[in-house]
C-alpha cells in the first residue's frame, strides 16, 4: 500500500514536473513569439510613408503657384489701370493727305494705329485726323515672370490738303501719250454768265491733287474753286464787282496755289497788282506791274511775267523788292534776249523758265542765270503749219521735257519736243467751235496727277477735260 502511494506520488511529481517544463517551454515560446512580433511592428512603423509625402508636395506646389498667379494678376491690373490713364492729345499742321495706317512691329513693342478723318474747308481741303495708338510692352522681370503692359494714346491732327502741282514739271505722261479727242466739260459749259455754274471767259487754271480746279473767271472778276464732279463752283476771291478794293478784283488773269502759306496768288491784271488771299484776308504782294503769267518753283520763289516791261521776274516769297529778271528785260523785240508781250510761264525742276512769247509766236526757254533764251516751239512767224504758232498762251512741260502749248489763234493744243523743228497736234485742230472735239481760243493748260489734260476753253466758257489713253 505504501509502495502504491509512493509510486502514485512519484508519478504525480513527474507529472507536475513535466507540466512545469511544458509551461516553461510554452512561456519561452510565447515570449519569443512576442519579441518577433514586436520587432516586426517596429520595422513596419519605421518604413517611410511615400504616398502621403507626394500628396503633401503637390499641395505645397499648388499653393505656391496660386500665390504667384494672384501676385501676377494684381501687378498686371495695377499697370493696366495706370496705363489707361495716359492719354496724349496734340495738334499739328502738316502738308499731306489723310491716310489710314496700321503699324505692327515684331519686337518687344507692338503698336497699332487707327486713323479716322473728316474734311471741311472753304478755300482748301482741311483734314482733321484723330489717331488712336495702342502700344504693348512685354517686360521680363525673372525667368519665370513676364508682365505685359498696354498703353493708349490719342493724337488729334489737323492737316491742310494742298496741291502738289505748281506749274512745275508734270508727271505721268509718256513720250507717246495720247488723249481722247472728245472732251468732257468738267466746269462751266452753261454759256456766258455769272451764276455759280457759269463763267465769263475763263482764263488761268490750276488743278490740285484732288482734281479741284481753281479758275480765274476773267470778266466776272472772281476766282472760282470747282471741286471734282461738282455741278457748280464756289467763289473764293473777288466776286464783289469790278474794282480796286481789297475785296475786289479787276479782270484776274491767272491764279496759282501757294502750298507753303496755304493761300492763293492772283494776277489781278486790271489793278496792275499781284495779290495773295488767305480765305477772306488779302495782301498785296507786288504793285504797279503789268502782270499776266504766274509760276512758283519747288524752292518757293514766285515768278511773274510783265507784259509792259517784256520780262519775267523772280521774287523770294516774303521779300517783295524789285525782284530779279530771269527772262527778257531788254525791251520789246524778237532777239534771243528779248520778249514781246510775254504771256503764261512755266518753271521746271531745274528752275528753267518757259515763256509764251505772244507777239513773236514762239515759246522761249531761259536757263538759270543766262542772258539769252532759246526758241523751243514756233518762232517761224504767225501761221497754222506744224512749225508755227499763232499767239501762244498756256505752256506746260512734262517730265520728259515735252512742251505743250495752247495755240490760241489756231484753236488747238500742240506738243513740241525740244530740238525738233515741228510740233504735233495733240488736241482739237478741227477749227473753232463748241463741239466736244473743238476748242474756241484756248487760253491755259494743266495736267492732273493721272495725266489728263485740262484746257481753259475761253470763248466756250468752259473747262474741258481730255482723258489720257492708257
UniProtKB/TrEMBL annotation:
Residues 29-40 have a biased composition (Basic and acidic residues). It comes from the Eukaryota. SUPFAM superfamilies: NHL repeat. Residues 27-46 are annotated as: Disordered. The chain crosses the membrane at residues 54-79. One of its GO terms (molecular function) is zinc ion binding. The keyword Repeat applies. Keywords: Membrane, Repeat, Transmembrane, Transmembrane helix. NHL repeats lie at residues 190-229, 382-413, 438-469. This is Uncharacterized protein. It comes from Adineta steineri.
Amino acid at each position: 500500500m505504501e509502495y502504491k502511494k509512493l509510486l502514485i506520488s512519484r508519478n504525480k511529481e513527474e507529472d507536475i514536473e513535466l507540466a512545469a517544463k511544458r509551461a516553461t517551454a510554452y512561456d519561452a515560446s510565447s515570449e519569443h513569439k512576442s519579441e518577433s512580433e514586436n520587432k516586426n511592428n517596429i520595422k513596419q512603423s519605421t518604413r517611410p510613408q511615400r504616398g502621403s509625402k507626394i500628396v503633401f508636395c503637390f499641395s505645397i506646389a499648388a499653393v505656391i503657384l496660386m500665390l504667384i498667379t494672384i501676385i501676377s494678376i494684381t501687378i498686371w491690373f495695377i499697370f493696366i489701370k495706370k496705363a489707361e490713364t495716359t492719354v496724349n492729345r496734340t495738334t499739328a499742321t502738316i502738308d499731306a493727305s489723310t491716310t489710314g495706317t496700321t503699324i505692327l512691329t515684331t519686337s518687344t513693342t507692338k503698336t497699332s494705329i487707327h486713323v479716322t478723318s473728316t474734311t471741311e474747308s472753304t478755300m482748301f481741303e482741311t483734314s482733321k485726323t484723330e489717331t488712336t495708338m495702342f502700344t504693348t510692352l512685354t517686360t521680363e522681370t525673372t525667368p519665370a515672370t513676364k508682365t505685359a503692359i498696354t498703353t493708349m494714346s490719342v493724337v488729334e491732327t489737323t492737316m491742310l490738303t494742298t496741291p502738289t502741282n505748281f506749274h512745275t514739271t508734270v508727271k505721268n505722261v509718256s513720250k507717246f501719250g495720247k488723249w481722247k479727242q472728245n472732251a468732257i466739260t468738267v466746269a462751266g459749259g452753261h454759256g456766258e454768265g455769272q451764276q455759280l455754274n457759269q463763267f465769263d471767259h475763263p482764263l488761268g487754271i490750276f488743278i490740285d491733287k484732288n482734281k479741284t480746279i481753281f479758275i480765274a473767271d476773267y470778266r466776272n472778276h472772281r476766282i472760282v474753286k470747282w471741286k471734282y464732279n461738282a455741278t457748280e463752283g464756289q467763289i473764293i476771291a473777288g466776286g464783289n464787282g469790278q474794282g480796286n478794293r481789297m475785296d475786289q478784283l479787276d479782270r484776274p488773269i491767272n491764279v496759282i496755289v501757294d502750298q507753303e502759306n496755304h493761300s492763293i496768288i492772283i494776277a489781278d491784271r486790271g489793278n496792275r497788282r499781284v495779290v495773295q488771299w488767305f480765305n477772306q484776308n488779302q495782301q498785296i504782294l507786288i504793285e504797279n506791274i503789268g502782270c499776266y503769267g504766274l509760276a512758283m518753283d519747288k524752292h518757293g520763289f514766285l515768278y511773274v511775267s510783265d507784259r509792259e516791261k517784256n520780262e519775267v521776274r523772280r521774287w523770294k516769297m516774303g521779300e517783295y523788292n524789285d525782284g530779279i529778271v530771269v527772262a527778257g528785260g531788254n525791251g520789246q523785240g524778237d532777239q534771243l534776249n528779248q520778249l514781246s508781250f510775254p504771256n503764261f510761264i512755266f518753271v521746271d525742276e531745274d528752275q528753267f523758265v518757259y515763256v509764251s512769247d505772244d507777239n513773236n509766236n514762239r515759246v522761249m526757254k531761259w536757263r538759270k542765270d543766262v542772258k539769252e533764251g532759246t526758241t523751243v516751239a514756233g518762232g517761224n512767224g504767225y501761221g497754222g503749219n506744224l512749225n508755227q504758232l499763232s499767239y501762244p498762251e498756256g505752256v506746260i512741260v512734262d517730265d520728259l521735257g515735252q512742251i505743250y502749248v495752247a495755240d490760241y489763234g489756231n484753236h488747238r493744243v500742240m506738243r513740241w519736243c525740244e530740238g525738233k523743228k515741228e510740233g504735233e497736234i495733240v488736241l482739237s485742230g478741227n477749227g473753232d467751235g463748241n463741239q466736244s472735239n473743238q476748242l474756241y481760243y484756248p487760253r491755259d493748260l494743266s495736267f492732273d496727277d493721272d495725266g489728263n489734260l485740262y484746257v481753259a476753253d475761253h470763248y466756250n466758257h468752259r473747262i474741258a477735260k481730255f482723258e489720257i489713253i492708257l
